[in-house]
Amino acid sequence: MNSWKQIKKRLRRIKRPLLSLGLLVLLIMLLAIGYHTSATGSSDPVIAKLREEGQDREVYLTRTYVCGQEQLNLGTMSANAIIELMLRHPEWSGKTDEAGKVWITEEIEDLSATCKKNGYISVDKNGNLTLYDGPPKEEKVMRTFFQVDIDSMESSLPKSVLDQLHRGIRVSDVDEYHSVLSTFSDYAMEQSEKVMKRKS
User: Fold this and answer.
1) Homologous superfamily of 115-199 in CATH?
2) Phi first, then psi: what are they for 61, rounded to 5°?
3) Measured between alpha carbons, how far is 38 from 137 in angstroms, rounded to an integer?
4) Which pLDDT value is given to residue 59?
5) Which pTM value belongs to this model?
6) pLDDT tens, residue by residue, 122-147
């Protein structure tokens, strides 16, 4: 009986290092597979295509802001340079067009320089909360958000706030932008709210 206990103890001692060694080997293999995937970019179809074809391409970077958009022509780059750029920025997305150009998109949680300089939020003649490039009277619409319930706003908000909204509320940073949207979203028409939920 005692000898059986000793054998079991010995087996446990042997199994523990073997189990640890097996887990270590498995972990190393998984890390190696993950590194190989990120290094080759095989999970990204654009990178895979660039590697396969190896051609120089014209590259455009589109910066999409919470408000506004900017487009930069990065010029003609080698396939390796484009791949290196995209691997350095895994949060960017890319695509190629029929002409072989590469379009890279960067999402930025901020206002574009144009919005910071000229952004106004107001209501248009149809009662839609709207972002303008410059004062609303110039009617340079950048984006329409949702239709507001004018009657409800007029009955619950001070006249000074409504006057300010009609003149245009200046938004110069992302916090102001979100604050204004949040304030007036309470007066969004039900149908507009459903549309906003679908988009998000």
Assistant:
1) Bypass-of-forespore C, C-terminal domain (3.30.70.1740)
2) -115, 120
3) 51
4) 95
5) 0.59
6) 999 889 999 999 999 888 888 889 99
